[in-house]
Amino acid sequence: MIMIGSICSAIYKVSNNEYYFFDSHCHDIDGMSSFEGKSLLVFNRNIDDLVSFLYNMYSSMHIDFAMQFEILPISIATLCHSFPEKDPFQKRFYRMDEKQPVTNLVDKEQDRKSYMRDYMMKKRQNEQFKQLERNKEMSRKLKRQNVKVREKEKECDRDARKLKRQSVKEKENERETIARKLKRQHVEVREKEKECDRVARKLKRQSVKVKEKENERETIARKLKRQHVEVREKEKECDRDARKLKRQSVKVKEKENERETIARKLKRQHVEVREKEKECDRDARKLKRQSVKVKEKENERETIARKLKRQHVEVREKEKECDRDARKLKRQSVKVKEKENERETIARKLKRQHGEVREKEKECDRDARKLKRQSIKVKEKENERETISRKLKRQHVEVREKEREKDKSAKKLRRQSYEINQKEREKNRISKRRYRERPLALEKERLKKQTQRSDNVFRQNERLCDREKRQEKRLNKEYCNRESEQNKQRMFGMHLQNCIQNFHKQIKHGPIFVCSCCHQTWFRESVLNVDNTKLDSASKKKYLTNTTSAESTEWICNTCYSSIRENKIPKLSVLNGMSWPSKPKELNLLPLEERLVSLRIPFMQIRELPRGGQYSVKGNIVIVPVDVQPTVNSLPRKMDEHITVPVKLKKRLCYQKCDYQENVRPTKVLMALHWLMNNSDFYRNANINVDESWFQEITSSANEIVQEFVETQGRKNQNTDDDSEKDTEYDDFCEVDGVGRDGNCDTLLEDASRDMNQIYTFAPGEGQRPLSLYQDQNAEYLSFPTIFCGKGRLTNDERAVHVSYADIAKWELRSIDRRAAQSVPSSKKFK
Prior knowledge:
Blueprint: E1 2-4, E2 7-15, E3 18-23, E4 40-44, H1 47-60, E5 69-71, E6 81-82, E7 92-93, H2 104-123, H3 127-144, H4 147-184, H5 187-205, H6 208-226, H7 229-247, H8 250-268, H9 271-289, H10 292-310, H11 313-332, H12 334-352, H13 355-373, H14 376-394, H15 397-415, H16 418-436, H17 439-453, H18 456-473, H19 477-492, H20 496-506, E8 513-514, E9 521-522, E10 527-529, H21 537-543, E11 555-557, H22 558-565, H23 591-597, E12 600-608, E13 615-625, H24 628-634, E14 645-649, E15 660-664, H25 666-679, H26 681-684, H27 692-723, E16 760-762, H28 779-783, H29 785-788, H30 805-814
Parallel strand pairs: 14-16
Antiparallel strand pairs: 1-2, 1-5, 2-3, 3-4, 6-7, 8-9, 10-11, 12-13, 14-15
Helix pairs in contact: 23-25
């Protein structure tokens, strides 16, 4: 205890590294005064930190250190105190020789309850106290007759119970943690807990779901750990050590060698792999030869082998002859001669590095030239040689380019001066004007430009020059404004009327122009006439299909034309496999008839967009697999093709609402299913049974009807002349009203024996589990058999050019065959 002035504070030492300071006054951690009314508990690691803290605290309270102070040492016999657990440095301390009993809190609560019982029993012996309790109970009963009071009491009771339960749970948790800690001090208890945990984990891991969850957790934990470079390096080291230990056994090494040899043999069957290995070997050899030691070893081996061979006289003579022949053959080529000259020049340069040699050569050259130049003929010959050598050098493109570069660099240096640059421009302008005054000169310039522009390089350079000039001009705002106005006038017209006329011209013709390459419908702006293009006859035969559309001409779109010009196959062309399968007559079905035949029913919301009048899908698309067999078996099998049956399609049979209702032709449905079973692999694998005898009966009955019609037609022709006069009075009479009807309605006369009120209801998707588009890859082909005819699209492996799904959808909507674009009716909204 420390007493200084009117302040008393305590210091407690736990160990050499733990010192606690306690002060009941209002001071913060830094020792400054505060007004929160809280006590202070500070932890320090060293005695020096504690002394500095005390000095700061007392100085902040303006206490004079010259005052008298008192230090009182205190020894604590038993300490059962718990510091706050929020601070990691603050812990619980108990006396080591005394263990705290776990049931101490329970005994205290029981003592308190017994004391309160005795106290209340003594009080209730007084009659006045009893009367007061009775009055309080009567007032409570009167209050509880009100509903609001009872509800408030219930709420208070609930809150009190919740608070009690929270406190009880906390106490129970504390007791359990303390008891567990005491038990786990024994080694046997810890081992039993580990065994129980192992058994429980084994039982849980027997279920597949638990194993999957554990694997997912382990993978996630591994990924998080592997983000650190240290963990990855440790794993690599562990793998290396494990491999080294395994490879110490001879069997493991043999197995690894066998696997590697088998894998190498399989890889080397491909030509590309072999070429890559050769390139890798070459690169490895080059890298090895960069080291001087490897080069020396190779040279030593070669020299030893050559020495052994050259010991024979015949080998030496053959080598000499081969060297002579090789030199003769090499010297016939100009490059070899140049290389030899270069070597000689290099050798001469090395010699000329010495000053004495250079001086001697110069003197000899001077003397020889002086003697030769005294004659006129020698001078003329030298001039001729120089001119000839210059002409020969200039035949090479590289020499000419070097000379031009030198001239350009010299001109650039001259043109850096502003005066010389202006003089050159004036001279060029004056010369061009004088030259262009002649008509022949203008024609020559025009022809030169035409020939020059045929070269792509010249055109590109000319365009670059034009762009640079325009960029310089566009720095001026007035020029930019003029250019934008001119572009608007070219695009839309000079006046408003011209703009309106151009708009009407552009929308006059719709997308009626069909591309002969991709069979898509386009507007006039995105199409070119094939006769006006620069395509060869071979490319026309290869890519085009000779289809004519608007104006009885053959057209090609810009995208296909650009890819053909680049010698590429257009990705949406017929040559790349973009075409529809041929649609037979059996698949000309109504919408509900198609639903009865399809193996998948798609559920989607198609709604009209707020602008433009187009339709879009809203929400998710759900695909329900369907069993076609019960619907086919329940349809009536009439022999007449023209008989229709009313059918309702529901989601479930117990629902009253009908999603789709239409009159269906049973024969058409069965004929379509028969065709799909014979021509589609999807329907063959669907395990659908169709009665072949019924199909044969229909074909035989149809043939009989045709024969009867042919026989009766001849008889009717004889009686037409006699009955024509009698029937003229009744030709204008008709029982059917002339008003048109919407939808699919029956207008045929049928037998009276047939029950017209019988309606067939089907719920083919009832009890089926929906599928996702990502799971069912053939959902489109099975949902719309009238569009795809039971066949799938070509895969990208079967195509020459890769085509994305978005491009396929665009092609199907723009195709000349409108089966996909007309599959959704334009006047209905349905799910």
